[in-house]
Each structure stands twice: as C-alpha cells, then as structure tokens.
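Moderator note: this is an archived Q&A kept for reference. The question asked for a predicted structure of one protein chain; the sequence and the answer are reproduced below.
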Amino acid sequence: MTNNIDGKINNVLNNLLEDYSNDRTIDEIKPFDHPNRDIVIDILEKLRRIVYPGYYKNNTYKIYTVRNNISMLLEDVIYNLISQITIVLKYSPKYENAGREELEKEAERITFEFLDRIPKIREYIETDVQATFDGDPAAYNKDEIIYTYPGLYAILTSRIAHELFLLGVPLIPRIMTEHAHSLTGIDIHPGTTIGKYFFIDHGTGIVIGETTVIGDNVKIYQGVTLGALSTRGGQKLKNKKRHPTIQDNVTIYSGASILGGDTVVGKNAVIGGNAFITTSIPEGAKVSVKSQELMYNYDSSNPMHKQELENDNVWYYNI
C-alpha cells in the first residue's frame, strides 16, 4: 500500500516538474528575486507600532521606554525595508539594468526618506482618529477606535503605502494595501491621495481607485465605489486620471458609486445611498436616487398605503 502511494506521489511530482518547464509567467522560480510578503506585512505591523508608540508595545521586555522600543523597531524596519526595496526596484524600468550595489544604495536612500515622512503620517492619522470619534456616536473612546476600527486600519495602511508609492517603490505598497483589504474588506489603492480628517464608517465593500483624490473632512460609508468609468482600455489608460475627485466636507452614503476621472464632487455635497454618478456634482448639492414607492399593508382593515420618499429631508442619514 505504502509503495503504491509513494509511486503515485512520484508520478505527480514528475508531472508537475515537467509542467514547470513551459517558460510561462507562472512557471518562474526565483525565490530570491521576489519580495517576501510575510516580511512586508511584518514591516507594516512594526510601522503601526511606531505610529502608535503607546498602544502596541513589545511585551517581551519588562522595562518599557519609548526610546528603546522605537530604536529596536526602527532597526528591524530599516534592515528589512532596504532589503525588500532592493529586490523590487528591478520592476521599475528606471532600474532594470542597475547592478546590486546601485539598487542597495537607492533602496537605502528611499528607506530613510520614507522614515522622515512618518511624522507627517502621524499628523494625518491623528486627524483621522478625531474625525472617527467626532463622527461615530457608537465610539466610546479613541482607544476603541485605534484598537478595533477597520476603517482606521485601512486608512493608516493606505497612508503608509501612499508615501512609498510616491517614492517610486514598486509592488510593496500594493502588498500592504491588499493585506489591509483582506482583513477589512476595504480596498484602497496606494496611489489614492487622501486629505486630513478622513472617516470610513463600517467600511466593508469600499473600493477606492488609484487616481482618486479625496479632500479634507470626507466621510464614506460601506459599499461605496470611487472608480473608473471603464477599464476596457487596459494598459492604454495607465497614468491617466481615471477616478473621481472628492472635495472637502463631502459625505457619501452606503452603496453609492462615483465614477470617472473628470467627475468632481464639490465641497459640502451629500451623496445619498445607492446613487450612481458619472458627472460632476456642484458644491453643497444633495444627491438622491428617485425612490420606488413603498407599499405598506398592516392588516386587512388597513388598505395599501403609498409613500413617496424623494422629498424626505432625513432619509440619507439612514445606514
């Protein structure tokens, strides 16, 4: 019996090894030429500890000081980030012919320039925590927000990844945001530009495309898409503005889709749930979908009653 199974395993192995020799993209076996996803995610988690120095301390040590803790985290982040950036720089046409020494030197430069931007990331994330607390009556304190809110985790990951994206780092920013996507259901491309006081409530099912620009004090609910009108052009659309611009103080309720690179939602606008928008919205506008009539039948003595909701002034607050 054992010999029979061993023979079958050997046949499967030989078939796979033969299949690997077809020179396709999926056949490539270069484990040291690709970034290590686990290391990238570990870098992200250590950066989160650096952003929130008092929330995610290392419990291995009985005596805790900020300087010692951050020093250890920085050492690890610097070493691994330089290593991973060195690997991925070859994906950039600018460095495809560069030697190892040049790649390492550039990776070191990028790493320290990125680390110099952490105070800016922390400045912005502080406003996001405040916006979340101010905007959610279910939040009892800010610790609850930092520890548990998926929207804040996705935003922090996006802010970290965006700075690496701006520095021209391939692949690593996308690994970070897709990790957050897998945990939260919130898909924010690292190319997205996001202002201060950004609040994602609930969050599940949100999609925000690469060239989206979001202003200050914007609030977004679950199921919102800030996307492109069409992706049929494929690679021909690369580096073009394909996603909308959301100006300051805009609220977008659940299920709304706002599409297109020329679409601008003006300041102080409110977009109602399930709206489908492909043209610009003026400042201060309240956009709603013309509602279907709701039919009520309470009992046999109470006939059908029809109610139009399109003039209701409070419907768009329902979530």
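Archived answer notes: The mean pLDDT is 89.
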